[in-house]
Design goal:
Immunoglobulin-like; 97 strands; six-stranded mixed beta sheet; 2% helix; single chain; 1112 residues
Length: 1112
């Protein structure tokens, strides 16, 4: 049903409803459109172009109510008069829909807006008339005619007009008014509320405070607060208010240079007075006589003026004062003396009593001198080089005004009469701020008489009084070597206290004097006695006492200054360290120490380093790192002085010819002789054999001087190369024991003391080999135990690792068998000797059919499934004698075979196996099923095995018919494929007759396409008996519900009507009498129509029981 028909049907239904039920609700009558929250102008909803608004469209019943069932109305909007932007159509919901954000793009009064049904043009449209106005283009302000005065109410007419100068009648925006001069009494601006506009016009009262001093006028500007689409800016307007006169005399206004009169705006002036200079006259001082709104008055009388200032210093000059001759006194002169913020006041008397003041900054005339504030800096207090103290210095002009000096000055210290330097001073700042320097200063040189000096660098210099500075607490021990000069007191934080570099020396030479001083952080000598422990963090040194003996403890007593003798035995950049209780360690500057002349040959192995400066052998640090046999490694050969420092490259002993030697006779050493052209060279060597206790010596010998250097290197076996596998039956086995071959043994027997040893390429036992290895035999299957062993287990005692000894078992018999070990990480292997694994004693019989595979040594001795057969198919079964681990054995038990279904064993049964312990038997399987073939030992039946073969039916060859009393026998020997005798049947009673499709061996064949027809020789069968005669078999079977009527023997015959080549079948059934009719009627009845009466006819047996299967 389309919408038009549905609408007409609704109308008709509504009319019908009105006819039959006058009290029911009316049906849909018309559409209605209304503006939501409208602004009504001249009786119509009104909007402005581009102003968005919302409308409600609803379906209205005849009684004015909303038809909430009219959601089939697809409402849309239209503007027939002017362009408009309208929302998309939409179906009503509960009989109504709100359309939002629509707007007109052109003006008109009125314009129409319509709502209609987009789907059904027969629905009358709804329409509303609206006024759409242009947006405001400018604002007119009308000012009353005549004289006007500040401070009086001014009534303004403000009109919002479009670009055609027509009032915008729906205008309701806020409009802001602003005077050009001064303020309104209500504030700087006045806002006309949008609600004040009626048909585009608002009348407002304002009070102006300011007017133009000369022209006696002011301008009021209007600004709309809304900018409409496509407007470059909000609408504006203005009006001239003229004449606009000031009020009566009420105030005076003082203006200093930098200030400006602001009529109509409190406080009557703006700006900040310009700063002036002490003792310098300045003019440009004005006084205005004004009304209460700071507008200069038009006429007198004028007041009399008097002047004052809060500067009591002599030399201050003010204007003379007296009566004003007009409304302004211009360009008067003032001189002020005292610096700071000064207040100048003018007092008016006569017609009005009032005053006005301004504040002006007076700056000093110029810098003349500095002065220390000794209330802050007390020169009688003794200072310390490490402690800052506060000073305050002020800058003054020649009138002793604080001079507003801002900027840096130079600061320095004078010690005594001539020692003057800025390097003795640390200061937090050197900047004056507003004429004052506040600084924390620190004098870093100890002195009895000290002065601070402040220098402006422009000729103004000030010196403080003298004061004393003592050294600070001890911070360190200062070491001064020959070549250095002690220089105390410099403030540089990285300065050491010495100038110059230490003189270079040679290992073993005496350096004297080395001067030790107890100093503060700036190198000033500190009094007191301290114990100092000396050390050398960069090498070895010898400290000598004054009598030339050695100070073994390297501890001295320091009282101020102490000179000592030092010998460095280590070459390189050497430093001394001083340790004093309670202080951080002190450290000297570096002394360049050269090596002495050649004296020794030294060989250094990995793990060792040269112990330069050592006094005693071996001159090396560390312990040689163990090396892997067969792996090259580097040794370093050094030519050194007597202190084990490598000699200079220019030492006259170089070059040196030398030979390598080793206790490892298989070692790979550099070819002799070798030449050492510099003080150090690196050589590659290889050790191959392990000596008890696994150490070897490498030596070098100077062929001309005879000096010898040696190193004792621990040697470990190399990386894994192979495994030795055999048997170690020793009570206390060792890795070096010769292994016995693996002997021949019986399958499944545990072989004790099988041994696996990890060896490197040189046959060394690898004691560090802790990994697990995989064991395997060269035959298929899981026949070895264990498969994985850990060489961390050793011989079981835990003392020797890299070895495994334990028992193993192989469950499969075989010849030329080997056991192998494989490392999982590197793939290294090893194999045993070949040996034989014998089978065990006879324990089982095994039967195997095609499709099965034997697995000697693995349970259950075979895997896989026999290949499927078709009924009548022949398979060869192999019967084998096995040991307990399923290995074939040459035993000859008598085997008997049997199956779970019908089959023909074509070979002789109950016969002994052949000499090799096996025999083949041919079997024909007849029954289609999963048949179990079982073979067992006639003497010991428990020694048996079975296999299950899947036998399926063959092709459809014949039919078999089965009567009650008979049983289908698939695969059986019967000639008709069934057993039993047909049960006698009762004449006229139904009984089931089953017909099946079978192969040559009477197995059911799954058939769903052949039709079967049943017939009999006694003529009882016909249409409907049976009902499904001639129909298709399902799953190779069809059951006929049959009833026979002729007494005696009846032959029933079935044939395949789809394929006549399929052999039919028959069955003979005896039909007996054994049923009678029983008729039941009421005792009485009426004769003649239309009378009737009930009658029941039943077939019952001899016991009177109803025969429910009777087919009569």
């Amino acid at each position: 049903m389309n919408l038009r028909k549905r609408f007409q049907k609704s109308i008709a239904a509504g009319a019908l409803a009105l006819l039959i039920a006058p009290g029911a609700a009316q049906a849909f009558d018309h559409l209605e459109i209304t503006v939501i929250s409208p602004e009504i102008v001249e009786g119509r909803p009104s909007v402005t172009i581009y102003e968005q608004f919302d409308v409600l469209v609803r379906a209205v019943n005849g009684d004015g109510s909303t038809d909430t069932d009219a959601d089939y109305v697809n409402a849309f909007l239209a503007s027939p008069d002017v362009p408009a932007t309208l929302p998309s159509p939409g179906y009503l919901q509960n009989g109504e829909r709100i359309f939002s954000n629509l707007y007109f793009r052109d003006a008109g009064q009125p314009v129409r807006l319509r709502a209609a049904d987009l789907d059904d043009g027969s629905v009358p449209f709804a329409e509303i008339a609206m006024n759409c106005y242009d947006y405001v283009d400018h604002i007119d302000i009308t000012v009353p005619a005549g004289d006007k005065y500040v401070g009086q109410i001014l009534s303004l007419t403000v009109t919002a007009r479009d670009d055609g100068n027509v009032p915008v009648k729906n205008f309701d925006d806020n409009v802001m008014l602003t005077p050009d001069i001064g303020h309104f009494t209500a504030g700087p601006t006045f806002t006309i509320p949008g609600g004040s506009f009626v048909l585009g016009v608002a009348i407002v009262d304002v009070i102006l405070q300011g007017t133009d001093t000369l022209l006696h006028q002011n301008t009021i500007d209007a600004l709309n607060t809304v900018t409409y689409p496509y407007q470059p800016g909000p609408a504006t307007g203005s009006a001239l208010v003229s004449p606009l006169y000031p009020g009566a005399l009420s105030r005076v206004v003082l203006l200093l240079p930098g200030e400006t009169l602001t009529p109509g705006m409190s406080p009557g002036k703006s700006g900040t007075p310009n700063a002036q200079i002490s003792s310098f006259a300045f003019n440009g001082v004005d006084v205005h006589a004004t009304d209460q709104y700071w507008n200069p008055v038009d006429a007198g009388p004028y007041p009399t003026l008097a002047w004052s200032v809060d500067d009591p210093a002599p030399g201050v000059l003010l204007p003379p004062g007296g009566p004003m001759s007009s409304n302004v006194e211009l360009d008067q002169m003032i001189t002020l003396m005292t610096s700071g913020l000064r207040q100048v006041t003018v007092q008016a008397s006569g017609p009005v009593t009032t005053s006005n003041a301004s504040h002006v900054q007076v700056n000093p005339a110029g810098l003349d001198h500095f002065s220390f504030d000794y209330a802050v800096f007390d020169t009688t207090t003794i200072q310390a080089t490490t402690n800052p103290f506060l000073i305050r210095v002020r800058a003054y002009d020649s009138f002793d005004n604080i001079f507003d000096y801002n900027g840096p000055v130079s600061m320095r210290v004078r010690i005594g009469a001539t020692d003057e330097s800025a390097d003795y001073l640390i200061t937090s700042t050197n900047n004056f701020v507003d004429g004052v320097l506040n600084a924390a200063v620190q004098v870093t040189k100890r002195a009895f008489s000290v002065r601070l000096i402040i220098d402006s660098n422009t000729g103004v210099i000030a010196e403080s009084g003298t004061f004393q500075v003592n050294a600070g607490p001890m911070e360190k021990v200062l070491f001064t070597y020959p070549g250095q000069t002690w220089t105390p007191g410099l403030s540089d934080p990285v300065f050491t206290g010495n100038i110059g570099m230490p003189t270079a020396s040679t290992a073993g030479y005496i350096i004297e004097p080395v001067t030790l001083r107890a100093v503060d952080p700036y190198g000033n000598l500190v009094s007191g006695t301290r114990t100092v422990a000396l050390s050398c963090p960069t090498g070895y040194f010898i400290l000598m006492n004054g009598d030339g003996s050695i100070n073994e403890a390297a501890i001295v007593t320091l009282s101020g200054t102490l000179g000592v003798k030092v010998i460095f035995t280590t070459s390189g950049d050497m430093v001394l360290r001083g340790t004093v209780s309670g202080l951080d360690d002190s450290q000297s500057e570096e002394v360049e120490v050269s090596p002495n002349v050649y004296s020794r040959m030294v060989i250094v192995a990995p793990g060792e380093s040269l112990d330069q400066g050592a006094l005693d052998p071996p001159g090396k640090l560390g312990t040689p790192t163990p090396q892997d046999a067969g792996t090259p490694f580097n040794v370093t050969v050094h030519a050194t002085d007597t202190f084990y420092n490598p000699v200079n490259p220019w030492d006259p002993a170089l070059p040196i010819d030398f030979d390598f030697d080793s206790t490892d006779l298989q070692a790979v050493l550099p070819v002799n002789p070798q030449t050492l052209n510099t003080n150090t060279a690196i050589y590659s060597v290889t050790l191959r054999t392990l000596e008890d206790p696994n150490q070897q010596v490498i030596s070098v010998e100077n062929l001309s001087g005879g000096q010898i250097g040696t190193v004792l290197i621990p040697v470990e076996a190399g990386v894994i190369d192979h495994f030795d596998i055999g048997v170690n039956n020793n009570t206390n086995p060792l890795p070096g024991d010769a292994l016995e071959p693996v002997p021949d043994h019986q399958a499944g027997a545990w072989l004790p003391n099988l041994t696996v040893i990890a060896r490197d390429a040189f046959g060394n036992h690898i004691a560090a080999f802790h990994d697990s290895v995989s064991l395997s035999v060269d035959m298929d299957g899981d026949v070895l135990s264990p498969l994985r062993v850990s060489l961390q287990d050793g011989f079981g005692s835990g003392l020797v690792e890299g070895v495994w000894r334990g028992s193993s078992r192989i469950t499969r018999a075989g010849v030329d068998v080997t056991i192998s070990a494989t490392d999982d990480i590197y793939g290294r292997t090893g194999a045993s000797n070949t040996f034989t694994v014998f089978p065990g004693a006879y324990a089982y019989l095994q039967v195997v059919l095609p499709g099965e595979t034997v697995t000697p040594g693995e349970a259950p001795g075979k895997f896989g499934n026999p290949l499927p057969l078709t009924a009548g198919g022949t398979a060869t079964a192999t019967v084998t004698a096995l040991d307990a681990w399923w290995n074939p054995v040459p035993s000859q038990p008598v085997a008997h075979l049997e199956t779970s279904g019908f089959s023909d064993i074509l070979s002789a049964n109950n016969v002994a196996l052949e000499a090799d312990g096996s025999r083949d038997f041919d079997i024909r399987f007849r029954t289609a099923a999963d048949q179990e073939l079982r073979a067992h030992d006639l003497a010991q039946p428990s020694r048996a095995d079975t296999s299950v073969v899947e036998v399926s039916a063959g092709e459809l060859q014949r039919l078999v018919v089965i009567a009650p009393g008979e049983t289908h026998q698939p695969g059986g020997p019967e000639v008709d494929g069934k057993t039993g005798t047909p049960d006698p049947q009762i004449a006229m009673l139904q009984f089931p007759l089953t017909v099946r499709a079978v192969d040559d061996y009477w197995n059911l064949v799954d058939n769903n396409s052949h039709n079967v027809f049943l017939n009999s020789d006694e003529g009882s069968l016909g249409p409907g008996n049976p009902l499904n005669n001639g129909m298709t078999m399902a799953g190779g079977e069809i059951i006929f519900p049959v009833s026979l009527s002729t007494l005696g023997y009846a032959t029933l015959m079935v044939n395949d009507t789809t394929d006549p080549t399929v052999l039919g079948a028959d069955v003979v059934v005896l039909v007996e009498e054994g049923a009678q009719y029983r008729i039941t009627a009421p005792d009485t009845a009426y004769v003649g129509p239309p009378s009737t009466f009930p009658m029941t006819i039943e077939l019952v047996d001899e016991f009177g029981v109803v025969m429910g299967n009777a087919f009569n």
